[in-house]
User: Which sequence fits this backbone?
């Protein structure tokens, strides 16, 4: 966990997300240079049954309390396992009315959207309409400046396309207010990226970029002839019966029971900004979806349970490479893996969008799932604290001889991730 004093916003903006979200499936990369050899890919373990461990509900609650103590107005966690559903909440979902946080509430899921977009694109791969190792320009002629950039490079953040949001959100609140109600085209967002220097040669190194998943949205629309909203709805939302999941762009409201989101300004002590209503047009297929905890767990469990992709395609999605030197964080095709202190591996994604942090993870067999949310952003300590829900939920009680915080609420995968409104 980070030290008690909050790091400066300018420092937080410079942090890199998880150091890397590298992902490769067998035979999928262009040859790496000798100086930049690609890490060896790890196939996901194929065990059909996970060892069921009861969640440490005390530690889960403490992780949420740590999150609100770090500046989130409210936080929630919902765990699903063989013993049923366990939910815990802290704080408020609306600072104006004082309404308590509710585990049923909808919220903006940020970059968890990337996993939805990846699933739709991989379904198109299953249908033979897109090939992972085909150049993007073969589907969208002339869009990108380098014909070597493949579809796989987009899904693994190895395209070298600059992330336009680095400039867009250089200043937290002014940047947000400048785009809160703006509606961008995909082409405009790609244009903003191309105006910046490319970050790496295709396939050589991981560099996180929302631009990658903007282009994924373009590929989906080109291949299907339909808006991404229709494809999310037809291929995932209706198929799984997700009643609280939607893609409303360019609409600005979160309908029904929902948590309000609150953005921390750059200036210390400045009041929080209610960021609930926004187009999220700056993100679109990279981060504009809305859901709730139950739907996210259903989605992740169904995905890992093989209900959305063919077995071979799911295996490709789950082929992981390390993202940092701890060898506990990995990335596949649009999906993260964390190796927890107890040896349990969990798969899913994190999300950060103005006013919301999200964790949505499940075990490899889909039998245990956690979705957690805090209704704030630009607050790294809160993000790290929320990450502690993973250890509490999936590892259970720490050994009696260990320190109280060793598993329950000191673990924070987000500690190595950027605390930017556009990242996740």
Assistant:
């Amino acid at each position: 966990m980070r030290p008690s004093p909050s790091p400066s916003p300018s420092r937080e903006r410079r942090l890199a997300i998880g150091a890397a979200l590298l992902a490769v499936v067998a035979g999928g990369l262009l040859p790496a240079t000798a100086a930049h050899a690609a890490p060896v890919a790890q196939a996901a373990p194929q065990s059909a049954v996970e060892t069921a461990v009861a969640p440490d509900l005390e530690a889960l609650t403490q992780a949420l309390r740590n999150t609100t103590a770090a500046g989130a107005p409210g936080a929630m966690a919902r765990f699903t396992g063989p013993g049923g559903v366990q939910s815990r909440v802290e704080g408020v979902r609306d600072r104006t009315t004082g309404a308590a946080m509710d585990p049923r509430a909808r919220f903006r899921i940020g970059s968890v959207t990337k996993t939805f977009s990846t699933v739709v694109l991989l379904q198109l791969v299953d249908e033979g309409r897109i090939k992972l190792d085909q150049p993007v320009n073969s589907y969208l002629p002339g869009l990108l400046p380098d014909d070597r950039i493949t579809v796989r490079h987009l899904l693994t953040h190895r395209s070298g396309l600059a992330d336009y949001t680095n400039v867009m959100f250089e200043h937290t609140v002014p940047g947000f207010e400048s785009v809160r109600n703006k509606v961008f085209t995909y082409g405009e967002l790609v244009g903003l990226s191309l105006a910046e220097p490319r970050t790496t040669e295709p396939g050589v190194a991981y560099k996180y970029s929302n631009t990658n998943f903007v282009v994924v949205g373009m590929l989906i629309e080109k291949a299907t002839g339909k808006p991404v909203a229709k494809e999310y709805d037809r291929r995932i939302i209706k198929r799984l019966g997700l009643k609280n999941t939607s893609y409303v762009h360019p609409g600005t409201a979160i309908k029904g029971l929902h948590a309000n989101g609150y953005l921390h300004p750059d200036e210390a002590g400045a009041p929080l900004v209610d960021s609930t209503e926004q187009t999220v047009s700056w993100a679109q297929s990279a981060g504009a979806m809305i859901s709730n905890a139950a739907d996210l767990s259903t989605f992740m469990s169904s995905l890992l349970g093989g209900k959305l992709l063919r077995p071979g395609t799911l295996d490709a999605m789950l082929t992981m490479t390390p993202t940092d030197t701890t060898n506990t964080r990995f990335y596949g095709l649009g999906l993260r893996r964390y190796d927890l202190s107890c040896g349990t591996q969990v798969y899913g994604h994190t999300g950060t969008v103005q006013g919301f942090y999200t964790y949505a993870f499940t075990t490899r067999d889909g039998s245990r799932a956690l979705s957690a949310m805090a209704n704030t952003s630009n607050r790294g300590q809160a993000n790290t604290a929320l990450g502690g829900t993973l250890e509490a939920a999936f590892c259970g009680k720490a050994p009696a001889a260990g320190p109280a915080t060793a598993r329950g609420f000191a673990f924070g995968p987000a500690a190595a991730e950027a605390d930017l409104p556009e990242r996740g």
